[in-house]
Amino acid sequence: MAKEITNREENYSQWYNDIVKKAELAENSAVRGCMVIKPYGYAIWEKMRDQLDIMFKETGHVNAYFPLLVPRSLFEAEEKNAEGFAKECAVVTHYRLENDPDNEGKLRVDPNAKLEEELIIRPTSEAIIWNTYKGWIHSYRDLPLLINQWANVMRWEMRTRPFLRTAEFLWQEGHTAHATKDEAIAEARQMHDVYAQFAEEHMAMPVIKGYKSENERFAGAVDTFTIEALMQDGKALQAGTSHFLGQNFAKAFDVKYLTSENKEEYVWATSWGVSTRLIGALIMTHSDDQGLVLPPKLAPIQVVIVPIPKPTEEIMEVANKLIKELKAKGISVKVDTDDRKRPGFKFAEYEMKGVPVRLGIGARDLAKGVVEVARRDEKTKELIALEGLVEHVEQLLSEIQDNLFNRAIKFREERYSEATTYEELKEILNIKGGFVKAYWDGTSETELKIKEETKATIRCIPLEGGQGEGTCIYSGKPATQIALFAKAY
Amino acid sequence: MAKEITNREENYSQWYNDIVKKAELAENSAVRGCMVIKPYGYAIWEKMRDQLDIMFKETGHVNAYFPLLVPRSLFEAEEKNAEGFAKECAVVTHYRLENDPDNEGKLRVDPNAKLEEELIIRPTSEAIIWNTYKGWIHSYRDLPLLINQWANVMRWEMRTRPFLRTAEFLWQEGHTAHATKDEAIAEARQMHDVYAQFAEEHMAMPVIKGYKSENERFAGAVDTFTIEALMQDGKALQAGTSHFLGQNFAKAFDVKYLTSENKEEYVWATSWGVSTRLIGALIMTHSDDQGLVLPPKLAPIQVVIVPIPKPTEEIMEVANKLIKELKAKGISVKVDTDDRKRPGFKFAEYEMKGVPVRLGIGARDLAKGVVEVARRDEKTKELIALEGLVEHVEQLLSEIQDNLFNRAIKFREERYSEATTYEELKEILNIKGGFVKAYWDGTSETELKIKEETKATIRCIPLEGGQGEGTCIYSGKPATQIALFAKAY
Fold first, then answer.
1. Are residues B270 and B168 in the same domain?
2. Model ipTM over 0.85
3. Of B411, B415, B404, residue with least CA distance to B204
4. What is the least distance, in Å, from the CA of B102 to any CA of chain A?
5. Are residues B275 and B216 in the same domain?
6. Which end of chain B has less Cβ packing within 10 Å, N or C?
């Protein structure tokens, strides 16, 4: 555990992999592109999920569960959506194994158990859900339908990285149905706001809110709203998307409702999702060369107590009292009583795991009525009086949460530029990285050319400051949109 | 919603299906044998999951997540386990779709995207998990490993019924690794106890604890502990199982550890699971001919307030105050302000959904300072003074929880018999149903003959009262085991 990890400067990508491994977040499995999420990584996901679930329920949503498998004929009904995901589909073709007659003790697929119609493992659930909604929606009284699902999905990606891009991942997908276009747009934007709020207030990760260009939109969407975060290597990461789907799925699955005036209309739809990818974003927003750094609100262990050098009776008495008081304040705390490991080893271990606050309790300090309080974010420590320590820790956790956010905001502001010429865009992207604002003529042609030449994509048209009158930096044509370019994950 | 459902007497199986439908718990999907769990059904599952998760964590377990797909070669490594599930496996053979050249706008499986090795959708995760544990376990210091997973699994069953038997279902599966046999057995029995406690205290469903005969054991287990409940049609339902796996999986996946004496040993294992099947058990334990009956501890809505006949300002003032006070006591409450529906319609609706307590608030009653309180379990109602109402409701919920359990215990006791002859066993099974205790010679031959002739299986050898000296009721041979027979789901 206490082994060093690669420096960010030296090899950023290796640094990321080292943290995933050494902080025991995840590991590759025997299945190509699929990871095992280890208990500590999963505990972070549980914190994220629980908080998001509260926010979804506060905004009127309920959870449900739809099948993992989608019949091919349903999957292909919404053509753009199907086209967008067809190349990444895991396909079930058989439903039975049998003993392999040529291979004692081995199994093979039973050729007599071929499905009449292939089943796709859901890469996303619009198809199966809208086929179900058809039976649920008849009149305006059945609307809106505000449903979310926590599930696993599968996209057969060629290049995978733990959390950031995996063949199977965990996510939530909201699927809502509305009577009017305005209401559906308002819903898509509301969930966009919920994601931004979650990212900033809980992950301490600043995000830019905007909408996607046509090229980058979700397959089957009319509009995709996105939150974009900046990683420490100057690359952007799409952290969550919320889609206004228009009537595309309602038309593909023939979902109509009777209005209060007794007219038949197609239903309006949204969908929105965030995934275990957020754990990758969390790692790359805050962590450092000593390991993971976690914002207190998402840390499975917020405070760790290390007895110095060993858990004596005197130390444990103080520790147990602290634990009780901290827990009473809703603070999660662990005491490490393993006496096979030295304190220095433990310090490094909890640093690696990103525990926000460490309390070192030793007999000499106790004699003076103080305890060593170390904060993970700034790697500073100070002696604090035992009297009032719990309040100090509570305050410190809140300070760390704010500090991480402010640090990340500052980092992003330093890498948020404006380019007035194409040369300038290229130079910024190459040297400084980060987000670059520039006038764009709104055409896919320009967008793709820039992508080809610079590897940067349009992350979004920001909701704030995305409009204006100017000249496209690439084509020189008149432009009314200001796009945000960046290299991205 | 207010439509009637089939009587239990008339057609028990149709009654069950009617409740699943009318209480809006689940419905069949476009995929054979896979159900959609609707929001109300899912809310019950969330209550179950949250409580079980607390109990697992209290007993030292942590959650993690392992891949959905299992390579065929791993799946077949533990032969008994593989053999047990081979006939029910959904198999992924391809990873891409392509446009169908003969069918504009349609997709087909891309024949060039065939997997080298087929992937099985997990019917259970021992294989993928023990293959992972191999990398995690090296020394006695790495043990015990106490991990649980919440996941979906798939078993291609031929005859399916919502919740009771579905091709895809949601469950939790605990997988633990231990240094000694005794410790593993103690773990399997601990989780057996946890399941029994959950069933009785939260589901208000009495269960019999026992272990399975060899025939009925989990494929790959040395011993399977089970909790068996009795449904209202006199059939038993296996509600949860906990398996002592011996060293079978450790040997199949070569998972060894170094003892503190530096010797190499195979690891000992357990696994244990409960699933959305519990919702089926819950329905069939308590519900009646008016619909679902839910124990308060698992009811998504514990109290519903119905304004009579309409939500006037006066009524809503009282209702809102009650809501606030009930919520402060942790009681979930809903007020139905929909004025398109009459109170009688609403009464029937919440009866159908099994809401434990209904408060009818009307102007005339309010003038007298009282509110109508109806309990779902006994379908009784009384006028209760507004003063002290919240405490009354709190008390009533606890009373309902107890009453449901006591009712179910009484029902089961009336259907718990002893047979001293085979004729007697057959007669009881045919006429009264329920559990029948009888001496059994311990052979599979006898067990299978009885099953063939009576359709009853050995549900378990009860932990209490399963031993004794007697004569097998079938073979007449000496018997030391007393088995519990029943027809079962």
1. yes
2. yes
3. B404
4. 15
5. yes
6. N
